[in-house]
Amino acid sequence: MTQARAVHGIDDSPRGRLLSAAAQLFRDKGYERTTVRDIAAVVGIQSGSIFHHFKTKEEILFAVMEEVIHFNTERLRAAIAAEDRPVERLRALVRAELTAIVGDTSEAMTVLVTEWRCLNADKQREALALRDIYEQLWLDVLADLHKEGRFRAEPFIMRRLITGMTGWTHNWFDQSRSLSVEGLADLIVDRVVGEESEEGAA
Amino acid sequence: MTQARAVHGIDDSPRGRLLSAAAQLFRDKGYERTTVRDIAAVVGIQSGSIFHHFKTKEEILFAVMEEVIHFNTERLRAAIAAEDRPVERLRALVRAELTAIVGDTSEAMTVLVTEWRCLNADKQREALALRDIYEQLWLDVLADLHKEGRFRAEPFIMRRLITGMTGWTHNWFDQSRSLSVEGLADLIVDRVVGEESEEGAA
Amino acid sequence: MTQARAVHGIDDSPRGRLLSAAAQLFRDKGYERTTVRDIAAVVGIQSGSIFHHFKTKEEILFAVMEEVIHFNTERLRAAIAAEDRPVERLRALVRAELTAIVGDTSEAMTVLVTEWRCLNADKQREALALRDIYEQLWLDVLADLHKEGRFRAEPFIMRRLITGMTGWTHNWFDQSRSLSVEGLADLIVDRVVGEESEEGAA
Amino acid sequence: MTQARAVHGIDDSPRGRLLSAAAQLFRDKGYERTTVRDIAAVVGIQSGSIFHHFKTKEEILFAVMEEVIHFNTERLRAAIAAEDRPVERLRALVRAELTAIVGDTSEAMTVLVTEWRCLNADKQREALALRDIYEQLWLDVLADLHKEGRFRAEPFIMRRLITGMTGWTHNWFDQSRSLSVEGLADLIVDRVVGEESEEGAA
DNA sequence: CATGAATGAGCTTTCATTCAT
DNA sequence: GATGAATGAAAGCTCATTCAT
């Protein structure tokens, strides 16, 4: 029995502790290779007891994804609300997403990407609806920048390039190294709107 | 029994057909959810016969990864050899990697990313050594561009941003749509060296 | 939570409502496929609360059987007491047993037959002792008829043929159809003492 | 590992031995209380091996029922074909059914009645279609007798009374006692067409 | 090399029963 | 008495792997 690290947006109820443990295990071993016994062991209960909280193993996976989308959608909203200028909104979004991916919700965010296929079709549709809300926040800001002429590509394609850049960080970014989340965010913003300092130099 | 699409770099031997089928199934259903019976059925043999060609199921996964890395490392070498100027070499690399991911070796490339965790530690190390060769080709070209002052970030970080952008395409890019591999490659190159040069050229 | 139909011989106490619900569920789904949660849900309590009334699930089954035997043994006694002539006593017994099986105690009577095996050896012995009393009432009447020469077979064998005929009715008899319990009882009595007497009476 | 008694109509293949063992266990302990491990143990294989022969446990139950219906339908056909006079055909049918129930196919016949509910709706329908063929053989003979005026009740009701009488025998009939299958069959035939000797005496 | 029956460990899930509140 | 979370021992079923033919 190991102590599960708390995951932001998940409280200390039995259900919350179960979700934390599941997120961590699903990320580390994958959904299929993680057994309900594994999850139960981390939380310190018997495997049968899990089914008082979730009807199936898949429901645990869905709950992990649902909660992390909700939590980070709110984070995105707050990030946008705190800034006026589109380029600063973009920077806030990138920082928020990076924090989600390599920071407080990293386990669940990784699971969201890597274990997507393990949801059945119905649950995928349901989760997709939630992701659409999240994505729309990005698209709105990118559309503003596009209108301002800050980049040429279609906003929805630019979003996909950004998704790739931020999403891949869970495979390499280490906050303890020299590069900070803020530094990395600036780097990514530069990929979208060009290197500001260059402009400043021009 | 379905006819497995040929995968570039894999010949028509029984072993080759097995790898093709495995790559496709591993991508579509995931390594864990794919049974050796599934693979055997596609090739038209019995499940027991698979073990005359591969000692374990994991060995099949490893072979898929190994072959696709080898094949695409050669593709990268050819791409670099065909160009002189660093920026054109970069463009050639991006095109080559995009072709690998969304084109002829898409199944195996996706598997390389999504099922990495299913290899045991030893095999991961072994495969990593092969990937390092592949990655070094990228880093060399990026180092040249960096020396030329075409971007400011560390080359190895730039490579990771590119990896994210190209790697994610398997989730959205559809060659039948308006955007071509070449067009997308240009877009990505712009993210690295800025859009100015094009404007300047125009 | 559904309203359980009252079963004759079982009062409206919590225990009585539990037995009614159990009888119905055991008949409809079988003892093994009925969970204590099912029973609790029908009565409107939690599953844990059942064990304040019965020590085990099997005890519920036993109680259902015990009560229905008692109730119908009394019904048989009353039927015999109301008639003088052996053949009319037989008719009364058949009517009483049919009423038990397709009428007011049909659920519990069906359970008595179909779930007998689910009792452990001790409980089977105990229930058998009660059934013996019930059966003796039949055997006495049949012995009288046999002495009168109304049929040739051994009374205990004749009883078994009757048991088969009446017991099977729960699989087909539908009171709402043309055949009444009384009509069916006459038919069965004819199987025992022959159709001649009726003809003679006509 | 116990030796499973051979059941008529089931050969000595692995599948046949599995069905024999299952029929016996299902009768003795009931379908729900019999585990696939129980069945495997009797046959002397591992539990997992069962699923090479049957996809599910329920499929085993269905196969037991299907085979016993087929086998005994043929037995009924042969019985009818061997006699000309309706009353002798009836006697042959009763003997055949009694043999099925207390003789060579007793385990499976009992299972057919007692575990019917354990089949899902689809399989019940399928098995019912087979039973209808079996039942029609009975109804035809009974219709002939009815036309001859040998009994007054509707043939289909008479069949149900007979079903009850023969079906219940598995609970009490012991061939080693004084009453033989032939003797019991005569007794039952008398319940249908009246006691012949009485007529002879008249 | 191919077969396919068999293995056996391991999986998710169920459920009667317990017990602190 | 009632609650309902927790238990823990099964259950049915899956599947990579083996091996005699």
Automatic annotation (TrEMBL), chains A, B, C, D:
PROSITE patterns found in the cross-reference section: HTH_TETR_1, HTH_TETR_2
DNA-binding region: 35-54
Domain HTH tetR-type: 12-72
A Pfam match: TetR_N
Listed InterPro entries: DNA-bd_HTH_TetR-type_CS, Homeodomain-like_sf, HTH-type_TetR-like_transc_reg, HTH_TetR, KstR2_TetR_C, Tet_transcr_reg_TetR-rel_C_sf
GO molecular function: DNA-binding transcription factor activity; transcription cis-regulatory region binding
Domain of life: Bacteria
Sorted UniProt keywords: Coiled coil, DNA-binding
Protein name: TetR/AcrR family transcriptional regulator
Lineage summary: Bacteria, Pseudomonadati, Pseudomonadota, Gammaproteobacteria, Oceanospirillales
